[in-house]
Amino acid sequence: MTSDRRTLLADAALDVLADEGMRGLTHRAVDRKAALPPGTTSAYFRTRAALLTGLVTRLVQRDQTELRTMAEELPPLRTAEELVDGMVALTRQRLTGEGRRRSLARYACTIESVRDAELREILVPRENPGREAVRTFLAAHGATDVENRTHTLLTCIDGLVFDRLVSGGEVRREALEGLVAAALRQAPGGSASPAA
Which helix (H) or strand (E) holds 64? Predict the structure, then answer.
């Protein structure tokens, strides 16, 4: 029961953060969002730091579940077009509906983690089937320094999602095609050049 209540409160805290920003994230606001009596959130998360830690832990858990599900639904990536299709699906999911709300919370927590080592550690990119699919694709297509290229490609996609979250619209397919092409580009002599 305790873990269910903590999960409910962490999800409510995510909603408060998405709706009201970091300043609006209070124990009382989470109580209201969860439709629970005043004081409930502080009984489970005594401090604001504990509330943020619980929120970020839950956010990462939900993100990992989303990425696992998406990877399971995709066929093995054979072509650059298939990889771009997967990235289009991911960016759309991160920019619409519940995914957009989680993106708002994620970026607010990322900024907060600059001053909080514990949050930063929780937010470190985790292994997941989606990341592994990108890594496998790049290796199968002759990219060198696959680990760095995977990280750069996924970081650039994250940046595009952030840009569209702030300015509106969706990530253009052409932008994703350019990122994949850069990740696969070879330098003269056959060795891969650094991804842009």
Answer: helix 48-73
Extended beta strands in the chain, E state: none
Give per-residue pLDDT as tens, 106-125. 999 999 999 999 999 999 87
C-alpha span between 56 and 63 (Å, rounded): 10
Q: Where are the domains of the chain?
A: 55-184
d(CA 196, CA 179) in angstroms, rounded, equals 7
* Domain topology for 55-184: Tetracycline Repressor; domain 2 (1.10.357)
Residue 186 φ/ψ, nearest 5 degrees: -105, 140
The pTM of the full predicted model, rounded to 2 decimals, is 0.86
CA 114 from chain center: how many Å? 16
DSSP string for residues in 36-62 = --TTHHHHHS-SHHHHHHHHHHHHHHH
Query: Is 189 a residue whose pLDDT tops 60?
Result: no
Rounded to whole angstroms, the Cα distance separating 44 from 51 reads: 8
Looking at the predicted structure, is the pLDDT value of residue 75 above 90? Answer: no
Query: Distance between CA atoms of 193 and 185, rounded to whole angstroms?
Result: 6
pLDDT digits (tens, 9 = 90+) for 127-183: 888 899 999 999 999 999 999 999 999 999 999 999 999 999 999 999 999 999 999
Question: What 3-state class would DSSP assign to 15?
Answer: helix
Structure tokens at 107: 């970026």
